[in-house]
Design goal:
This protein has one domain. The longest helix has 30 residues, at about 90-120. The chain starts with a helix and ends in a 9-residue tail after the last helix. It is built from ten helices and no strands. It has helices spanning about 5-25, 30-55, 60-65, 65-80, 80-90, 90-120, 125-145, 155, 160-180, 180-200. α1 runs parallel beside α4 (about 65-80) and α6 (about 90-120) runs antiparallel to α7. It is globular, with a radius of gyration of 16 Å. With about 210 residues, it is an all-alpha fold.
Length: about 210
């Protein structure tokens, strides 16, 4: 897959995760700085963790400010009164926007994490690729929820980390069979579809009784 296509995917994921982070900030009644910081952290947090794991220093976020710029601008747009009214006025709209944006960001960053690991590492073991993919996908959300004082989404909501894990496995195993681009698209699609199905049918992992 060309670098330009990967960049486009990363920017789409950045915007999606920034929206979810900013909306969480609105829900928590944060001021504009808090909303922007939460949007920025959600958007770039997973990528920073990924790069540190792979020994890419400084992380790409700090070498190429386009990701932070997109995240900050997106969060500011979400903070505008018209957008606040649209998103926060009805709980159903809030839930749908959060679900779609979080699912899209999760899927894109999971497969982009795998692509970066493929490029940066001489050894492409399945465990490394899948682990880095999942961490890239869920890392920003974990930081978002921790900063917002919430239980991390991956531990309590519909099949979240498992969707990333399954999508990562699909991407890794399909990589040499159908090619890099198709494998990344397939992995992203699997993550998004599983998240939407899990939310609709309320799939969840077993939890303690009582």
């Amino acid at each position: 897959m060309s670098a330009d296509i990967v960049l486009v995917l990363e920017l789409i994921g950045t915007v999606a995760f920034s929206v979810s982070g900013a909306i969480t900030g609105l829900k928590k009644k944060m001021d504009i700085l808090g909303v922007v910081i939460l949007g920025l952290t959600t958007a770039v947090g997973g990528g920073v963790i990924r790069d540190l794991i792979l020994g890419i220093t400084p992380p790409n976020t700090f070498r190429n400010p386009i990701y932070a710029t997109f995240a900050i601008v997106t969060a500011i747009i979400v903070f505008l009164p018209a957008m606040q009214n649209l998103i926060m006025k009805k709980k159903s709209i809030y839930n749908q926007v959060m679900l779609i944006m979080d699912s899209l960001g999760l899927g894109i960053f999971t497969v982009v994490g795998i692509q970066v690991a493929q490029s940066a590492s001489g050894e492409h073991g399945i465990f490394l690729l899948v682990f880095v993919g999942v961490v890239t996908g869920v890392g920003g959300g974990v930081l978002r929820d921790t900063m917002a004082g919430e239980h991390p989404y991956i531990f309590v909501k519909h099949f979240y980390a498992c969707a990333s894990l399954i999508g990562a496995l699909v991407c890794v195993f399909a990589w040499d069979i159908i090619g890099e681009a198709n494998a990344m698209l397939a992995g992203t699609a699997v993550v998004v579809i599983l998240r939407l199905l899990a939310a609709h049918f309320r799939w969840s992992l077993p939890k303690p009784r009582g």
